[in-house]
Write a structure and sequence with these properties.
heterodimer; A: 474 residues; alpha+beta; 4-stranded antiparallel β-sheet; B: 303 residues; mainly alpha; two-stranded antiparallel sheet; 7 helices; 4 strands; 4% strand
């Protein structure tokens, strides 16, 4: 014992502060890395030895390098991510659908219906007039085009949702594989050196990313790995179990060509992703996509179909009751539609209907009579469209639909705004705990530099003292 | 609470985004001049606007119906007035011949005048509006009257047209009601004007046939009744025209009221927007300034 103990203590200081500076450098370098948790070096005094009869420490040593990580916060972030993924997807698609119903400028389907019956008004004033009859045909064609266009844009929106399932599940699968690989590395690192802070950060970041796309539950295991599973009733389907990954697969089911999404868990059992797995926001982007495709867009489409069917039926019944200028009767105006489903897509002017065979007259042999045209006009104010348990007029049914789409879009936008605020708040809280503060790191850097300088000073002093002691011998 | 640079920069981005979104919304409102540009801006107002838009469309259609009906009735009224004039002329002829005449040339000239007047009467009965015979009822694509006999080949259908929601008005006056004195609801009288002319023509005689004085005076009485019948028809037409005028005013009023409601909901208040815009501008500038100032501060500046 003696001066060598001083040298040991000083060199332990040099070593410890070099590691501390390393950690500071790592923190500063990763200040902008997504999901990075700041690390600190935990110093402790080295075990004491006896110095000239006095027990004294033998310098400093690095106990561990720990990361600031709050598992509860991670759980909250994952949950918020899932809701946000669901709401954002829903809102985006709804906003794409909304222009189809943008009737505020009064030039869409609603206007086409009004204009069609307006053309019949002109026929009442000149039942035999070719130009008035031509206008009815033209308006009927525009109405047809409008029904087709609305129906097509809704069908297309649903089809886009369907085809987006393929890249979405691909990206989910690759994330699942990556998480499983990182789990394996964490397990490996744990057996070798005990800490795998960076790999854990990467894994947790992937889990957060995945939460936007897919709703899931997860558990953090004592070996540092994270398991990801879907809960269906009381059964858990593990998409990641330690180092093993499951996957999602899509298979198209004829005749609709809609994809069914199936989860294959790490043990090999499978389950279809449906409403027994998710109930709403808890399903993330994947479930929102399925909901838009299967429920929300078809819901709008079925209302448009109902309207198309009502227009077809009401106009046909009235038209068949009338007489053409040559006395023919019983003819349809629009092609009859047997079922409500697809009525808007099938909407068309009946084959063979021409300006000469429009039935404006109420009795045979009176081409100048307008009573059937007048009855046709009055369809606009009759309650013909089934709407819930009641019935409504064409225009009020359609303006209700416009209002409903507007409400849906507005609600989804509001929810997305709330989600963004909530996520921002959680991110702030996470950053407050785990984020890197440059000022703190710089201040640490100066502190460690000073300490390193001091230890070095002690070392040179001890060396001087050692030289002095040796010169006594000389 | 521990504050990191990323926290303040994330906060700054979030809040600047919010400010930018508010500014964009104000800009959207100002440049479009409309409060509701998509249904989701205000679903309830959107519903109202769609309803009003629909009502305005029907309102325009009713205005067009009314104006067409008015000109139809104007034609009718002109024709009926022409018929009244002819009856007046015929009455004069009948008056001048009321005691008959021994002069063959006078009888012949009265005869010729009456024949011409009847022809004119039949021509007026075949008045067309566009290519429709206005006195033909629903069979208005063929002439309702002819010069050869007194039959009416039209029908007595009253054509209705809509002039406001579920409110219709009869457009036409049928030929049988005015010239044949038949038909009911409305019935203008029971004088067969065409037959009266024929009787009168026979009564005045011609250059070879002597006058029948009692038949002439009977004919004169019938002509008076016919004139009354036509007057009844004219006043019916006038009352319909008045109703159309009233409906047009009513239609205009309701259209204006609807436009006022729509513009109340739809048009932006530029003064209010201007104030909000300047508030948002100030807030956004302040946010930008503080962000730049705070982000620039670091221990590095002093090391």
């Amino acid at each position: 014992m003696g001066l060598s103990a001083v040298i040991t203590a000083a060199s332990s200081g040099l070593n410890a502060y070099q590691i501390a500076t390393d950690v500071t450098a790592e923190n500063i370098a990763n200040v902008n890395t997504a999901g990075y948790s700041r690390q600190t070096v935990q110093l402790e005094n080295a075990p004491p030895t006896t110095h000239d009869g006095y027990p004294l420490g033998s310098g400093v040593q690095v106990a561990s390098i720990t990361r600031y990580y709050d598992s509860l916060m991670q759980q909250q972030l994952v949950n918020a991510g899932t809701s946000q993924g669901y709401d954002t997807q829903k809102s985006t698609v709804l906003q794409q659908v909304e222009p189809t119903f943008n009737e505020v400028a009064n030039d869409g389907l609603g206007a086409a219906i009004s204009n069609f019956f307006g053309a019949w008004q002109d026929v009442t004033l000149n039942p035999g007039g070719t130009s008035e009859r031509q206008v009815v045909m033209t308006r009927a064609q525009i109405l047809t085009d409008n029904f087709h266009s609305v129906s097509k844009s809704l069908t297309d929106a649903a089809a886009t949702q369907n085809s987006s399932l393929v890249p979405l599940t691909d990206s989910i699968n690759s994330t699942l594989t990556n998480i499983a690989q990182l789990n394996q590395q964490i397990k490996g690192a744990a057996t070798v050196s005990g800490s795998a802070n960076e790999i854990k950060d990467q894994r947790d970041q992937l889990v957060s990313d995945l939460s936007q796309k897919l709703g899931f539950k997860y558990t953090e295991n004592s070996d540092g790995t994270t398991d990801i599973y879907l809960a269906k009733g009381n059964t858990n389907y593990y998409l990641v179990k330690g180092a093993d990954a499951g996957s999602l697969s899509v298979a198209s089911a004829p005749p609709s060509g809609n994809y069914t999404v199936t989860a294959h868990d790490a043990y090999g059992s499978t389950t279809t992703i449906d409403n027994s797995v998710y109930s709403g926001q808890d399903g993330g982007q994947l479930w929102a996509t399925l909901q838009m495709r299967d429920t929300i867009i078809p819901g709008y489409l079925s209302q448009v179909d109902t309207l198309a069917k009502s227009v077809t039926d009401a106009v046909n019944t009235q038209h068949a009751a009338g007489f053409t200028p040559t006395g023919a009767t019983g003819q349809d105006f629009f092609t009859a539609s047997a079922t409500v489903d697809g009525s808007a897509a099938r909407f068309s002017i009946a084959a063979g209907l021409t300006t000469a065979t429009i039935a404006a007259s109420g009795s045979a042999g009176t081409p100048g009579d307008n009573s059937n045209a007048l009855a046709m006009v009055q369809l606009t104010s009759s309650l013909t469209v089934p709407s819930g348990s009641a019935t409504s007029t064409f225009s009020s049914f359609y303006s209700n639909l416009v209002s409903q789409v507007g409400l849906d879009v507005q609600a989804s936008k509001t929810v997305v705004t709330q989600d963004a605020a909530f996520t921002k708040q959680l991110t702030t809280l996470r950053d407050s705990n785990s984020g890197v503060s440059l000022d703190q790191e710089l201040s640490n850097l100066m502190k460690y530099q000073r300490s390193y300088q001091a230890s070095a000073k002690v070392l040179t002093t001890a060396t001087d003292m050692m030289d002095m002691a040796l010169s006594l011998i000389r | 609470m521990r504050v990191t640079q990323n926290m303040s920069s994330n906060n700054a981005i979030y809040n600047l985004q919010q400010g930018a979104a508010r500014l964009a919304k104000l800009q959207d409102l100002t440049s479009s001049g409309k409060n509701v540009n998509t249904p989701s801006d205000d679903p309830i107002a959107a519903r109202l606007l769609v309803d009003i838009g629909d009502k305005l469309k029907s309102s325009d259609q009713y205005a067009s119906n009314i104006s067409k009906a008015t000109s139809w009735l104007d034609y009718t009224s002109t024709a009926l007035t022409g018929m009244s004039d002819i009856i007046n002329l015929a009455e004069k002829v009948a008056g001048s011949m009321n005691s008959g005449s021994a002069d063959a040339s006078i009888r012949q000239s009265a005869h010729d005048q009456l024949v011409e007047l009847k022809k004119q009467m039949v021509d007026l009965g075949n008045t067309q509006y566009g290519d429709q015979y206005i006195f033909g009822g629903a069979s208005n694509t063929t002439r309702p009257f002819n010069q050869n006999d007194n039959t009416y080949t039209g029908d007595s259908t009253q054509l209705g047209i809509e002039i406001s929601q579920n409110s219709t008005i009869s457009l036409n006056v049928t030929g049988d009601r005015i010239l044949k004195g038949s038909g009911s609801s409305p019935s203008y009288g029971s004088t067969d004007i065409l037959a009266t002319f024929d009787n009168l023509i026979a009564a005045v005689g011609d250059n070879s046939t002597p006058s029948n004085v009692s038949a002439i005076s009977r004919g004169a009485i019938d002509l008076q009744a016919g004139a009354q019948q036509l007057n009844n028809a004219v006043s019916d037409v006038l009352s319909r025209t008045t109703r159309l005028d009233n409906m047009l005013t009513l239609n205009d009023n309701s259209k204006n009221a609807l436009l006022a409601i729509a513009s109340n909901v739809q048009n932006v208040d530029y003064a209010k927007l201007g104030v909000e815009l300047s508030q948002q501008q100030t807030a956004y500038n302040a946010a930008l300034a503080t962000t730049a100032k705070i982000q620039g501060m670091s221990l590095l500046n002093y090391m």
